């Protein structure tokens, strides 16, 4: 998860008019609203054990998430809000000539990833320390940006997504996996779920084009968005 480090002054972050701050708000949120949606509170690195829980494969079927990505061996994948690298370590073996950039704002999470890299003897995962508003990825450097149950917690979603779009290669893709907000029977707090309509609206705001939604997971939808290839447009 992309998490909020402690003790960083708000003056260090972008000041925009795209957000609304409310004093009275959902206790599960931070009181900050983006495009009508309250941003959810994040889970700290002390919750790392929950990310690695044995029941996760049954509850979320992350192995199916990986298979649905249709990865190519030479892809460069950015796992945004990588946390302990749970998905990164399942993706990396498929990228025989590519790599995973495991992006998180918490140094403690990246230290866990480094530990697992040594234990598992996996070398094609590169931890990347991000800020709340910048994933720190070079321009046109990635084929795919993946966010699993992370986007709804981004404190600066517009700024982060704008930089991710810049980091994507032409026709690169963004995949968001979120608990289905349309279903009230999914036992996840409301602010930690998102409707497809809301996600599509927020991705459109940064120039991404909806490609498809795959509802093959038990409780989450997997939404695929694409960066338009400006070279094709100029060639017309």
Overview of this protein structure:
By secondary structure, this protein is of the alpha/beta class. Helices cover 25% and strands 27% of the residues. The protein has one domain (10-234): Vaccinia Virus protein VP39 (Rossmann fold). The strands form two sheets. Strands 4, 5, 6, 7, 8, 9, 10 and 11 form an eight-stranded mixed sheet that branches. The protein has a three-stranded antiparallel sheet with strand order 1-2-3, with no helix packed on it. β7, α6 (157-167) and β8 (168-180) form a beta-alpha-beta unit.
Shape descriptor: globular
Given as residue ranges, the uncertain stretches (5+ residues, pLDDT < 50) are: 3-12
Number of strands: 11
* Secondary-structure element string: EEEHHHEHEHEEHEEHEEH
Protein structure class: alpha/beta
**pLDDT averaged residue by residue:** 90
CATH architectural designation: 3-Layer(aba) Sandwich
Q: How many distinct domains? A: 1
Q: Fill in the CATH topology.
A: Rossmann fold
What is the CATH top level name? Alpha Beta
Determine the strand fraction and express it as a percent band. Answer: 25-35%
What Rg do the Cα atoms give?
17 Å
Q: Give the termini distance in whole angstroms.
A: 40 Å
CATH-assigned homologous superfamily? Vaccinia Virus protein VP39
Helical element count? 8
Helical content band: 25-40%
Strand count, sense and barrel status of the largest sheet are: 8 strands, mixed
């Amino acid at each position: 998860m992309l998490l909020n480090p402690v003790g960083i002054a708000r003056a260090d972050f972008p000041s925009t008019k795209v957000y609304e701050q409310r004093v009275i708000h959902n206790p599960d949120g931070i009181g900050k609203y983006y495009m009508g949606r309250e941003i959810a509170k994040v889970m700290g690195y002390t919750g790392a054990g929950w990310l690695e829980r044995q029941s996760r494969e049954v509850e979320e079927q992350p192995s199916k998430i990986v298979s649905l990505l249709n990865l190519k061996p030479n892809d460069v994948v950015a796992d945004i809000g990588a946390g302990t690298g749970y998905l990164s370590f399942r993706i990396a073996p498929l990228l025989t000539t590519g790599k995973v950039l495991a992006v998180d704002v918490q140094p403690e999470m990246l230290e866990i990833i480094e530990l697992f890299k040594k234990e598992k003897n996996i070398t094609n995962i590169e931890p990347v320390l991000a800020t709340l508003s910048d994933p720190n990825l070079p321009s046109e450097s990635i084929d795919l940006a993946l966010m699993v149950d992370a986007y709804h917690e981004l404190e600066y979603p517009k700024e982060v997504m704008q930089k991710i779009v810049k980091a994507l290669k032409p026709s690169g893709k963004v995949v968001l996996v979120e608990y289905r907000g349309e279903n009230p029977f999914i036992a996840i707090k409301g602010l930690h779920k998102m409707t497809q309509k809301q996600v599509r609206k927020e991705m459109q705001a940064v120039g991404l084009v909806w490609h498809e939604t795959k509802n093959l997971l038990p409780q989450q939808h997997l939404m695929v968005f694409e960066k338009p290839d400006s070279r094709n447009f100029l060639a017309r």
